[in-house]
Give the backbone structure.
Amino acid sequence: QVQLVDSGGGLVQAGSSLKLSCAASGSTFSGYAIAWFRQAPGKEREFVATVRATRQTYYSDSVKGRFSISRDNDGNTMYLLMDALKPQDTAVYYCAAGRPILSAIQNPNMYYYWGQGTQVTVST
């Protein structure tokens, strides 16, 4: 059974850092793009960052320069290091795996597998 398990969320103050993890099992994801999305209450799921099988990384403008995405050499564990957190970063964060073409990396419908989500809350 293919499974993604994301973890590492929590309650932090603005300006703090958090590191989210996403562990894949049941299949090898070395050929997949792994991405993080987030969803705040009442809002649509939003692309945050992705690391492709080639190790190329892409970020949304809202997190560029503050967040860093990476994956282990085996390709099955992925991390999102979040620095300088802001209250507007508050959301449930989901990791996802898929094989989107480059022009579609921000489309959640292009990802096949999803983690259960981990809550990140940033207080003022």
Remarks:
- The chain is about 0% helix and 50% strand.
